[in-house]
Predict the structure.
Amino acid sequence: MLFNSLDFAIFLPIVFLLYWFVSQKNLRLQNALIVLASYVFYGWWDWRFLSLIIFSTVVDYLIGKRLRTEDKQSKRKKLLWTSIIVNLGFLGFFKYYNFFLENFVDAFSFFGMQINANSLNIILPVGISFYTFQTLSYTIDVYRKKLEPTKDFMAFSAFVCFFPQLVAGPIERATNLLPQFYKKRTFEYHKAVDGMRQILWGLFKKVVIADNCAEFANQIFNNSADMNGSTLVLGAIFFTFQIYGDFSGYSDIAIGTSRLFGFDLKQNFATPYFSRDIAEFWRRWHISLSTWFRDYLYIPLGGSRGGTWMKVRNTFAIFLVSGFWHGANWTFIIWGALNVIYFLPLLLTNNNRKNLGVVAEGKLLPSFRELFAMLTTFTLTVFAWIFFRAENLSHAFNYVKFIFIPRRDVFESYTFTSLEYFNITTTLLLIGLLIFIEWLTRDYKHPLSFLSNYKVNYLFKYFVYLTLIFLIFLFGNFIDNKQFIYFQF
Amino acid sequence: MIKFLKQVIFYSISFGIIIWFYGFAINHIYNNGSYFKSQWINSIKNKSVDCVIIGNSRASLISLNEEKIDYLNLGHDGVGMKITYIQLHSYFKNKNNSKYVLLQGDYLSFNKIDDKRRSPRWLPYFSDPVIFKLLKNEHKIFKLHTFFPAINYILFKYDWGLASLINNVLEISESPWGKRGYFNVCDKYIDKGPEGSVDFKNHKQDLIWVDKINNLCKENNSELIIVTAPYYKMQDSVTDTNSFKAGLKEKNISYYDFSRQFSGISPFFRDNNHLNCYGADAFEKVLSNEILQIINK
């Protein structure tokens, strides 16, 4: 079920009313309703893959239970590895089987050996990368004795499949989300109102920004061989805002929806395109994944405690794995590698934790230096996104080549219609509006949360809501619902 | 909780009312526009011509010798027989008249009744009961148009997006249909060349829509003429063609078959079914002579 669909618009109020009016007095019933609603939400896409979620839930629950009673370190380790193998095994099979097979065959044929191996027609279960990481975090934290293993199977099931963040995150830690399922939730008016505001803002980013940018990003990337350099740059910028609007929009809707049910999820995006260096960017982009890799990969590998070589190795590991997590394609690995190249100079000069606060805090405008730093970081990010978006490596390299090498022959071969030019201009203006609003509200968790300030005039609030809803209606594509990009990961 | 629900209901209702008014406002704006073919047809009022051309994309490419024949082309690409009927209905409705109605088609196109693709372009004219009755089932949501027009304009953004709205309010782009309404495809398709071919075999013959259009012509003192424009390559069946011709003869409808007029002359076509501007120029001469003979009778 998509957040920007009529199905969800009907589903959400029904679950909300049942949750607060029917099951409010009984915690177990509330959790059971969440599990049921989440399975319906997921099964709407393909009910067969529910079995994977249920299997993963049962395995990690049982392993957690065993870890509670098991004191012997070697046995505890075995239990941990069982969980890792099961979860990453699913992920590996559904997401990476064909990639490894094809590369294996290619590698052998490079040395003159022909291998006959047929790739399988595997459907990637939506959200598998998210919920496997979430359940893994539970087992690892229990293993590390940072978290008490749960005895409540229903609460644990609800934690694994909680529908607002099931298919595209934020990837919640068991330490943050699971205890919320143990406590009785009471309806909080201000929390629910703020949740609605965040949903509205998320819809605006998805429907108005991402879907409109997608129109032209797709057109330009799909016809990149016929485009001139400036159009290709425009295409990359459109994709930069498409992926931001799409993914952060999804996170906003997920966090907002959770708040309607009395849950607090972690912030996943914090105005990443205002970052002054790439280290800051990674503290502000897909925060739940970055911190997951930091805590469960980077730090266990030694983090930045060892010598220079160790730091470089660990940084490479975290970014390459992060790239590979996004998809079974070399383009994602190169995207990860580019980010290492951007990040390493900061790390090696101990400048990676220089910009921890909000840019130009307390000021209306940034200094020239800050503006230059932001634009540089943004340019580097746009460049890296080309690899993320490209179909394959040769597409990516040609795209980059055609940006820098002027070609006289292409000027006549692809032209936009006057209507498309109009829509491109409109989309750029909408991007401008997004940047303007996010800049003014960069101190807040989401831009509309400033409306919770009691000083804000009621009519002004009404105007803001009306304008956003109007823009969503005016620009939203409701017939051909565009999927969220991160569903594929 | 109750306070929250009250707020949600208050906002939903108030936004619903505002959007409801917005729908009627833009419906009024679009109703008076002239950009899309549907709007262009509806902007023609109190006109009297020798001939109007109706039909699909193959009709929209037809031009006539305008020095000798006063004509209008109401044809549009992607339409089926319902919209073909509506083209003529809208023309007559606005107190226009024409001595002859030239319907471009063949027994394949006369069977095409699916109008999903272009029906949204007729939304501003759904207050006309004939148009509403014919098109209301093309999309489920059309049935709500009378009460809540905004919903259709929100959904069918391909036709009625912001660019359309601004263009209809400010008239930035001129209507592409000019004075006569035919579609000039010279610049865009000249190099494309013919592709594919049409298989006319095994198509059930159905002249229901021809009858309806013929009746409409009679009600408005006009005479229906059916013309099949040239194809690059034909694969029709002689039996079916003969039965089609016999059917029209029985109804006393004049029929002119130019389907093989330029057969195999690739410089005249942009694809198998459509003439390019050179083909359209050549066909103009041939067809104008025939029409002039009919007029001069």
The two ends of chain B are 81 Å apart (CA to CA). Chain B has twelve helices and seven strands. The domain at 2-296 of chain B is CATH 3.40.50.1110 (Rossmann fold).
